[in-house]
# Entry
Amino acid sequence: MGTKVASDIEIARAAALEPIETIAGKVGIPETHLFRYGPHKAKVSAAYASSLGSRPDGNLVLVTAISPTPAGEGKTTTTVGLGDGLNRIGKRAMICLREPSLGPCFGMKGGAAGGGYAQVVPMEDLNLHFTGDFHAITAAHNLLSAMIDNHIYWGNALDIDTRRIAWRRVLDINDRALRETVTSLGGVANGYPALAGFDITVASEVMAIFCLATSLGDLRKRLGDMIVAYRRDRSPVYCRELKADGAMTVLLKDAMLPNLVQTLENNPAFVHGGPFANIAHGCNSVMATKTALKLADYVVTEAGFGADLGAEKFFDIKCRKAGLKPKAVVIVATVRALKMNGGVKKEDLGTENVEALKAGCANLGRHIENVKKFGVPAVVAINHFAKDTDAELEALQSYAASQGVSAIVCRHWERGSEGTAELAQKVVDICEARMADFKPLYREDVGLFDKIEVIAKQIYRADAVKADAKVRDQLSQWEDAGYGHLPVCIAKTQYSFTTDPNKRGAPVGFELPIREVRLSAGAGFVVGICGEIMTMPGLPRVPAAETIQLNAEGQIEGLF
# Structure
């Protein structure tokens, strides 16, 4: 009989956590600048973060991945493992991650704070209410919703066209019943009945703004710039016209402070913010990243989904807007996921299949090529699974070498930092060689549709972009209104370079259809929507919530 493998939550619960003051001290944060949430969580004061401005920045390292599959890639786990690995080899390193959303936690994922011996802790707190940031964002968003309806109820002085209200409500729980709703039923006293709906909190433009804002002043300006509705003459109605931006900023003032926690190996981590990686840019907050760069010599962060979505948006939106210059990229791949890209079914992934692996490597190759287009050197991290064979690992490393990059086998899930020491040293070598010459994919002065075409052709390898006159005219109108300089954020399936999630690998010979475009004026980007993008997920047939509970000792079980 084999040895029982401990679950993530069992490993996390057995960890010897250090007081948060000790963790802060490792990167020089004084105790007086911590706002504690119990013994193992704290926010770092704005005054201290502002005082760091004259310090030089550390080296920024992005962790991204091949196209996601049901086989799993382990991007967050690798981010944690690399941060621990860098500390193990004597470097002062921090990691910056997004906060998990309650929706996926109780739905499919059951938790999202790394795995095995490469986790961020306290794991239960991270996956549940944490420091209340998402609740603050939910409240700020819905305050604006209430103020829109209230304005209309009391006479509609702004002449809002009630058929063209663009602002929905949000909730951080997966609830498909709320996707489309009718509000204000029950008579005159309740307002004017209207079609409405809910998105999940992480899809809110407030969340995207929260993660791109550089100060409370910048936050308020961005909130005020949000377009919430249109008048009958089609002119936009801004949040600031409803005078909601001040109160929303008040609700978010504490949430804006980065959250400090630790890894299983007691290394410092900022976990802050968490926008959708489809309809938004899918990165942790600029506040956390920029603060970490002043505190550590190496900062490891991640971006959502595969490199075609997450890395591109990290580079073209977050880095462009925040003035960040990444020094290295780690592309996470697994033998299992590449075999799936090569046509193997999930139930057959445990059987050696070198030929399928080689076929699936085309997906990895395209991501490597794409990262190089931004002028940032890459290394491949092979997230090791127990059933990976030597032949498969050798074939993967050989393929990566043919693409001009190293592929290093990482065993952080099983061994923690010991399993990523080699990867950490390679990242240091790349950074110290000063090989990076970062540049975004397109210039700001390129037209909006042209920007979409650049991404579609150079990153996805589409032959053309398909968009009707309505979409093109809308983009032209936004350019005329002064929004032409904004970057674009493509919302499409994460499972394929195309808009068809079933086309794995590295497909060619397709068009990218843009069904709709949306202006996120406060966040500062234009969203191009391909196909149906679900902004309020539903629960699966058997949600993780069914097995999440307290045991007889009052401990949480079921998070994994």
In short: The mean pLDDT is 95. DSSP finds 19 helices and 26 strands in the chain. Residues 65 and 331 are 5 Å apart (CA to CA). The first strand starts at residue 34 and ends at 36.
